[in-house]
Design goal:
The structure holds three protein chains of three kinds. By secondary structure, chain A is an alpha/beta fold. Chain A has two domains: 152 residues, Rossmann fold (3-Layer(aba) Sandwich), CATH 3.40.50; 77 residues, no CATH class. Chain A is 35% helix and 9% strand. Chain A has a five-stranded parallel beta sheet, sandwiched between helices. The radius of gyration of chain A is 19 Å and the shape is globular. Chain A starts with 5 loop residues before the first strand and ends in a 10-residue tail after the last helix. Chain B starts with a strand and ends in an 8-residue tail after the last helix. Chain B is built from 19 helices and 29 strands. By secondary structure, chain B is of the alpha/beta class. Chain B has four domains: 200 residues, no CATH class; 129 residues, no CATH class; 90 residues, Translation factors (Elongation Factor Tu (Ef-tu), domain 3); 137 residues, Nucleotide-binding domain of ferredoxin-NADP reductase (FNR) module (Rossmann fold, 3-Layer(aba) Sandwich), CATH 3.40.50. In chain B, the strands form six sheets. Chain B has an eight-stranded mixed beta sheet, with helices on both faces. In chain C, the strands form five sheets. A four-stranded mixed beta sheet of chain C has the order 8-7-6-11. Chain C has a three-stranded antiparallel beta sheet with strand order 1-2-3, covered by helices on one side. In chain C, helix 4 packs antiparallel against helix 10 and helix 7 packs antiparallel against helix 10. Chain C is globular and about 65 Å long. Chain C starts with a strand and ends in a 9-residue tail after the last helix. In chain C, 56% of the residues are buried. The chains are: A alpha/beta, B alpha/beta, C alpha+beta. Chains A and C meet through helix 1, helix 5 and helix 10 of A and helix 1, helix 2, helix 4 and helix 6 of C.
Chain lengths: 254, 644, 433
């Protein structure tokens, strides 16, 4: 029998919610371990091995020590998958990139002397692909369990994962939701990558853009819509800050 | 035809609905409130029904062509096992407005024509429609000016609110039986019948939105303005969100995907709604997108409604419901506004008929989604990316194809991809295809071994009508993978049994590099046949490669044609190659004096369903998978998008 | 055994977040014994600066995947406190259901996936699948139910969607609630069966004790989770909730990116055991039964029993949820619109009990509703000092055991607290000691 691919799960600065989404597959985890060996998954297992084929990496990179650890992981792995918004694009961790690290540190830790303490040696938040090459992306905050399954099965079968490149509106319309704009809310759905089954608008909440923008926030069409719905550019700027701060280009081809 | 009309009190109508619900034979669906809007949803009691609604967010199309539906279940463990499945709960839909009924009748023309879709057909047959006349008009609706505000067909029962009672028009025997079994009705009096007319007329006056151009003139208006600046102006603010196509009752394009369960043991082939506004809609395996610009996609949607489908089926594929107008954030999707805006330009130009295949008889069996099982017999690599596959159908019946036709090859878990057939027609169940590794299916195919199973659908599409070529000189020009279907045609014509029927044969063949030349054995054989001229060229040649032949583009071979052999007027030219090649080759042929009507081409587009249903391969109004891939150039040349 | 040895557990497993244990022993004497939190700091309080009031909830939810419902509720309570919003009775009931769903989800995850492997002597839940299939399937079923309950009430288990300022963006239908009610009723039997299994291996829990202070919310009307006043086993009730800093004194230590906290003693403990020690008489009957099975009585000073207290609470959450659903069904569930806030400047404090203990969100908003200052006090921060002191008492008691056993016992101690380290690395308003 062919040897099962060895999979390791790692986390950096994040809430570990995406790993939890994997645990939340419940009994389907057993299906997963029928064709892969999970050799490292700190959140749920004690065993650890540095011999793995696939690394699933969650979280953003904040410190030189994290960078070094990530490079180590990359050097062991044949395939590296970035899991969730923090890993794929920096996620909420990039909100603080609006300010310089020193400023943020002072804001949070006051005048405490943290010089030389590497635990606190933070730089501007980076997504995984700003440090090492990434082979596959699983978007979302948190990730969608079905999309995780479809990406993993695609990789196992050797096909290209089917990640939508159209906006959330497509899925939102299929769910027959009332448009958030019609309800007076401001929604990033029209410019955000689908794949989440439009879960937020389906629960009557506007899209926050956690899967990344596929259109720039300052394109003509966005301006047109803002004007039509009497929204200020400041609204969209602030809303885009939550997940998409500092992302200049749309992530169409990731 | 005079329809029977009954009346029912509103109270009795409620008990009628409740007894339908309690009977549990049917999934009883009706219009219910969702916030301030309305949707079709399963009813738990008649009280939920909102028959005075204006418009629902989605049309009832979702019950016939669901957002996501499983076409077949397959196993990845067994050699080749796939089963069509369908949950066939009989359904009653209560409260469908006339324009949505008309939209369904339009969809019938597409899904129940020629090659019927069995899923759609079964649902149509097992569903009872209880329509209702419009009482409240939605803000964006312009159905009155589209004359889709009333209908006298397409329903089993139709309600009209005439005060304390509903008038019930019986549209079918099914509807009649339903009434007999579950309802207390009375015959309508002549004053009731008058009330129906009065009610309809009163509502018809309420529309604020009105299209100023009669729908029968939309087609000519659009054609005259194909290159108008309006497409660019509007699409500049298009969000490419696809909402307009998702909410449309007459849009019916779909995508097909294979989903595999996490245990990698089984999976489903599902189809989901797709929309022509989305960029990836026309993308093929090699990465090419055929309507790259938003402008083109934006225009395509309107042309489909106002020109392509009218040309094909004789009706405008817009019923005026206004859903797209209210769903479009920058408000550029509403056909009413667009047509009115175009109308100001008042053009008189001719419509021009495009190439559309005449409808033949309806195929009884309908589309079979489950492919035929077949076995890979031989795998012969040509080079790093091109491989020849010899495939045998497991039922041992011949494929029965014409040169130029194609098959959809299916690998469960990976999907389907179209392949030209490279072998000539014959009695053998064995045929050949060439596989170039560009996408999921082709990459997987190249990992398979002789003996492995694949699925085959086909032969599909329009092939070459070789009989009409008899007595002519044949000039074949192919570039790259264009040689695949060309080889089928050439070998058929050079077959000793056929050869006498044709005059001189000239074969021009170009590849990018020497190593990308395929079917070299055939080429060598052709060269030895009398009255055959065979010329090869490559675009470029690395110093490491061995090539003694011509270097240059395919057009460089034309001067080599021996002029005395060509009787241009009696020459049939066949051109197959990459999209970029056609323009230049056709110019050479025209210079030679070959009439446009003697030129045949085979085009590549995203052929997904292969039966003219899913919409991906459309060039303007033409389905390449159905009307093509083989086209007569003379007929096709005016078609924009074909050779752009 | 050798008198010189070290135990260095880098990135302790089967806990949320990154923490290290360092133990150096020379000549049988403890040279160094430290519980270090090395999780990267994430500066959430800085992220909140300048955000609009209705974006505080979705952002703070991202502090922690496991406790995202708890963070959401604390955040909403703080915002609503600042704006003087009174939520409806229905919202109050639904929020209690949300907190129960999270409590159940988090507790069963901890008991079943994180602690059980220690009790069965394996490294993770995966090897248990073959040997103890029945038990694993029970755990999976209960975990699934808790998640589906979160999905139903909150829209999603991780990072809830429906929880918004003033109420809910969408509420479940009567049909959905009836379905949930039936599922919960079935789960109660399953929980009892699981308790029997845990009881059979409970002797693997060390019998260590150390007297300490326990702090949690308390309420006259219920076993406090969503609402209550701060109370201590040492000093009683502290009703002035905006002055929570009088009870929770946070300070920083250099080996940790998370803050530590103390009150009457050098350390205190929060979480299921603290709540049990404070409020056990208010538990519902089946929960009382489960507590009795393990002879769990207040005051229990064994931190390892925190896992058992979680099992008791799991049972309580099922019972209480059933009562809450009944009252919702009795009064009829309505698609209420959230209470519209009147934006004004002010400070708001929200305190809830989340699976791991007391959670505080404290916001200052300006007149336009933008956040100018934020402070979040995380349960796990409040436990770090207690973990450290437990270790200092525990290690000398087990020093004669093998290094491997010492390492395992220390890991089990940390795990017993169910630390949520991602949560604990965000702070503001540092108090220097």
């Amino acid at each position: 029998m062919k040897q099962k691919p060895r999979v390791a799960v790692f986390d950096f600065a994040d809430c570990e919610g995406c790993e939890l989404q994997i645990a939340n597959l419940e009994e389907e985890i057993l299906d997963l371990i029928s064709f892969v060996d999970i050799v490292s998954f700190r959140e749920v297992m004690k065993e650890h091995s540095d011999s793995y084929d696939i690394a699933i990496v969650e979280g953003s990179i904040m410190r030189p020590m994290d960078e070094e650890r990530l490079r180590g992981i990359r050097s062991h792995a044949k395939i590296l998958i970035a899991l969730g918004a923090c890993a794929t694009m920096g996620g909420v961790n990039k909100i603080r990139n609006q300010w310089m690290p020193e400023e943020v540190k002072k804001d949070v830790y006051g005048d405490a002397n943290l010089k030389g303490n590497e635990l606190f040696d933070v730089f501007q938040t980076k997504a995984i692909n700003e440090v090492v090459p990434v082979d596959y992306y699983i978007f979302g905050c948190p990730i969608d369990r079905d999309e995780f399954k479809s990406v993993i099965t695609a990789i196992a079968l050797g096909k290209k994962p089917d990640i939508p490149r159209y906006p959330v509106c497509v899925e939102c319309k299929k769910n027959e939701n009332i448009c958030q704009f019609e309800l007076g809310a401001f929604c990033l759905g029209p410019i955000t990558r689908a794949g989440c089954k439009a879960i937020c608008p389906t629960h009557n909440s506007p899209c926050e853009g956690c899967r990344g923008l596929i259109k720039k926030q300052d394109t003509e069409c966005v301006k047109e819509v803002l004007e039509r719905y009497k929204l200020s550019y400041e609204d969209i700027r602030r809303r885009c800050t939550m997940y998409n701060y500092g992302r200049k280009e749309c992530s169409y081809d990731e | 035809m005079k329809q029977i009309v009954k009346t029912i009190t509103k109270k009795d109508f409620s008990s009628f609905v409740n007894s339908l619900i309690n009977d549990r034979t049917y999934d009883v669906v009706g219009v219910v409130a969702k916030g301030k809007r309305y949707v079709f949803d399963t009813l738990s009691s008649a009280e939920e029904l909102q028959l005075d609604y204006d418009v629902t967010i989605l049309p009832p199309k979702k019950y016939y062509l669901p957002q996501t539906e499983t076409l077949l279940k397959f196993s990845l463990e067994k050699p080749f096992e796939g089963k069509e499945i369908m949950n066939d709960t009989p359904r009653i839909i209560i409260g469908v407005h006339p324009y949505d009924i008309i939209a369904l009748e339009q969809t019938d023309r597409h899904y129940l024509d020629q090659q019927q879709d069995n899923f759609y057909k079964k649902r149509r047959e097992s569903t009872i429609i209880i329509g209702v006349d419009i009482k409240n008009v939605s803000e964006r609706s312009f159905v009155a000016s589209m004359k889709t505000n009333v209908t006298d067909s397409g329903f089993d029962l139709l309600l009209t609110d005439i005060g304390t009672n509903y008038a019930v028009t019986i549209g079918s025997e099914k509807g009649n039986k339903l009434l007999e079994k579950y309802a207390i009705v009375e015959d309508a009096s002549s004053s009731d019948l008058k009330k129906i007319i009065t009610v309809r007329n009163a509502v018809a006056k309420k529309y604020r939105q009105k299209v100023n151009i009669d729908k029968k003139n939309w087609s000519s208006l659009l054609v005259a303005n194909y290159n108008h600046a309006i497409w660019e102006e509007h699409s500049d603010v298009c969000m490419e969100c696809g909402s307009c196509t998702m909410v449309c009752p007459t849009c019916f394009c779909y995508d097909v995907k294979d989903n595999v369960s996490l245990n990698l043991k089984e999976g489903n082939r599902v189809r989901t709604w797709d929309g022509c506004l989305l960029k990836d809609f026309t993308k093929v395996g090699s990465g090419e997108v055929f309507r790259e610009e938003v402008k083109e996609r934006y225009r395509h949607r309107f042309f489909r409604k106002g020109n392509y489908l009218p040309e094909r089926y004789g009706f405008v594929a817009c019923v005026g419901c206004g859903r797209c107008g209210s769903a479009c954030l920058p408000d550029i999707a509403d056909p009413c506004n667009l047509i009115n805006e175009l109308g100001h330009f008042n053009s008189e130009e001719d419509t021009g008929k495009y190439f559309i295949k005449e409808e033949t008889e309806v195929l009884e069996k309908g589309i079979i989604h489950v492919p035929r099982s077949a076995t890979i017999k031989k795998i012969i690599p040509f080079n790093e990316i091109d491989t020849l596959f010899e495939i045998e159908l497991d039922d041992k019946k011949p494929l029965g194809h014409k040169p130029g036709q194609f098959v959809e090859v299916s690998i469960f878990g990976y999907g389907e991809a179209p392949f030209g057939i490279s072998t000539p027609p014959g009695d053998s169940p064995v045929f050949e295809i060439m596989v170039r590794q560009v996408g999921n299916v082709t990459k997987k195919l190249c990992l398979l071994q002789p003996g492995d199973k694949v699925g085959i659908r086909g032969p599909l599409g329009n092939g070459f009508d070789v009989k009409t070529f008899e007595g002519k000189t044949m000039l074949f020009t192919s570039g790259g993978t264009g040689m695949v279907p060309m080889r089928s045609l050439i070998n058929h014509i050079l077959d000793p049994k056929q050869r006498d029927k044709f005059k001189e044969v000239i074969i021009l063949y170009g590849a990018k590099r020497p190593k990308e030349i395929t079917f070299m054995d055939d080429v060598d054989r052709w060269k030895k046949v009398s009255n055959v001229q065979c010329e090869l060229t490559v675009d470029r040649c690395e110093p490491s490669e061995c090539w003694g032949g011509c270097t240059g583009l395919i057009t460089a071979l034309f001067p080599k044609i021996k002029a005395d052999k060509i009787d241009s007027k009696n020459t049939i030219a066949v051109v197959i190659g990459p999209p970029v090649m056609y323009k230049y080759v056709i110019k050479c042929l025209q210079t030679l004096g070959v009439p446009d009507n003697n030129i045949y081409v085979s085009l590549e587009r995203r052929m997904k369903c292969g039966v003219g249903k899913c919409g991906h391969c459309q060039m303007n109004g033409v389905y390449v998978c159905k009307e093509g891939p083989v086209f007569n150039y003379g007929k096709l040349k005016q078609l924009p998008e074909a050779f752009e | 055994m050798s008198k010189d040895f070290s135990v260095h557990v880098e990135h302790i497993t089967r806990v949320e977040g990154h923490g290290n244990i360092v133990l150096d022993v020379k000549n049988g004497k403890i040279e160094k014994l430290q519980w270090n939190v090395v999780e990267a700091p994430r500066f959430f309080e800085a992220m909140l600066r300048g955000q609009q009031y209705n974006e505080l909830r979705p952002i703070t939810s991202r502090i922690c995947g496991i406790c995202s419902i708890g963070h959401s509720l604390a955040s909403l309570k703080a915002t609503e406190d600042a704006f003087d919003i009174k939520i409806t009775k229905q919202t109050a009931i639904l929020r209690r259901l949300a907190i129960h769903a999270e409590n159940m989800q988090s507790h069963i995850l901890h008991i079943g996936y994180l602690v059980a492997p220690d009790l069965f002597g394996v490294g993770s839940v995966f090897p248990l699948v073959g040997k103890h299939t029945d038990t694993v399937m029970k755990i999976v079923k209960l975990h699934r139910l808790a998640n589906e309950m979160s999905d139903l009430i909150c829209g999603r288990t991780i990072h809830p969607i429906r929880l918004i300022v003033g109420g809910f963006s969408l509420v479940p239908t009567e049909r959905q609630l009836l379905h949930l009610k039936n599922r919960l009723a079935e789960a109660q039997d399953l929980t009892k069966e699981l308790a029997v299994v845990i009881q059979s291996v409970a002797d693997k829990l060390p019998t260590f004790t150390r007297e300490t202070e326990y702090i949690g919310l308390t309420s006259d009307s219920e076993y406090a989770l969503y609402d209550g006043v701060i109370a201590s086993t040492d000093t009683g009730k502290h009703p002035a909730y905006r002055d929570y800093k009088e009870v929770i004194n946070e300070y920083i230590v250099p080996q940790s990116t998370a803050k530590y906290a103390k009150h009457a003693r050098e350390s205190y403990m929060v979480g299921a055991l603290a709540r049990f020690n404070l409020n056990s008489t208010q538990l519902h009957p089946v929960a009382q039964e489960v507590a009795h099975m393990f002879r769990l009585k207040p005051l229990t000073y064994n931190p390892f029993m925190n896992t058992i207290a979680q099992l008791v609470e799991f049972s309580h959450s099922i019972e209480d949820s059933l009562l809450l659903i009944n009252s919702l069904l009795d009064q009829g569930i309505k698609q209420e619109k959230p209470v519209k806030p009147v934006v004004k400047a002010g400070r708001g404090v929200g305190i809830v009990e989340v699976p791991r203990g007391i959670l505080v969100h404290d916001y200052t908003l300006n007149s336009k509703g933008y956040c100018t200052k934020a402070n979040c006090i995380i349960p796990t921060n409040q436990n770090h000092a207690n973990i450290q002191l437990d270790m200092e008492k525990l290690v000398p008691e087990i020093l004669t055991k093998s290094q491997k056993e010492i390492e395992l016992t220390l890991e089990m101690l940390v795990r017993a607290y169910d630390p949520c380290i991602s949560c604990s690395t965000h702070y503001l308003d540092v108090i220097f000691v």
